[in-house]
Amino acid sequence: MSHHIVQADNLHYIYPDGTIGLDEISFKIHHGESVALVGSNGAGKSTLLLHLIGCLTPTKGDIRIGDYPLNKKNLKAVRRSTGMVFQDPDDQLFMPTVFDDVAFGLINFGVPESEIENQVMKALEIVGVPHLSKRSPHKLSGGEKRAVAIATVIATMPDILIMDEPSSNLDPASRRRLINLLKTFTHTKIIATHDLDMALEICERTIVLNKGGIIADGNTKELFHNEKLLLESGLEKPLTMQGLR
């Protein structure tokens, strides 16, 4: 994939019950950018992410991932270049051991058996949990599950890392480890989050969603200084910015 871009043009999605999930969304994310998606519950963040990995099909509009328009013909190639960490790690971890979970994607992508163990252990080392390889994922703490879920994605070496509320339900130490880890990634990163302090630390660019539409797209710090915008979006200024003028 030559450019690793993520582009949406007039993306519109209506749920079966008639609810508008996305309302004429357009944006372009370039190679290496770290972009936060923020907004209140129901703003469209998770709906948008599910479109980017082909789990939902737009009612109208187009998505392009790198060199490929996202359609059934190109879905396998798109998923090979993107990796998504879901909000709930239990939606991602289902094998008997941590090793098996991290190996699952590699096996499905046809990685030679001789290379799988090395790639699995490398991914677990990156997230700091190689000692958990033989453990059952369902007996891990929330922070450990989150680390393993990230390992399942980075093991396949995606060009684009997509994350849905990655810091939710993490204790402060686990959250800090996650932030430090994400800072080391050179991937294109798209992170949907309510954690505006994390977004401020990791993402130079932020897209603000409200009722399925984009109401702002720009420099993270500048947007988070806009109290009127945050209020309209059901958000509060990050704690690290409160009291600053």
Description of the molecule:
This protein is of the alpha/beta class and 245 residues long. The protein has a domain of 165 residues: P-loop containing nucleotide triphosphate hydrolases (Rossmann fold). Helices cover 34% and strands 24% of the residues. The protein is built from nine helices and ten strands. The strands form two sheets. A six-stranded mixed β-sheet has the order 6-7-8-3-9-10, with helices on both faces. A hairpin with a 2-residue loop joins strand 4 and strand 5. Helix 3 crosses helix 4, helix 3 runs parallel beside helix 5 and helix 4 packs across helix 5. The chain is globular, with a radius of gyration of 18 Å.
Main attributes?
245 residues; alpha/beta; Rossmann fold; 6-stranded mixed beta sheet; 9 helices; 24% strand
Can you describe this structure in just a few lines?
The chain has helices at 45-52, 75-81, 98-108, 113-126, 142-154, 172-184, 196-202, 220-224, 227-232; strands at 6-14, 20-29, 34-38, 60-65, 68-69, 82-85, 160-164, 188-192, 205-210, 213-219. It has 245 residues and is of the alpha/beta class.
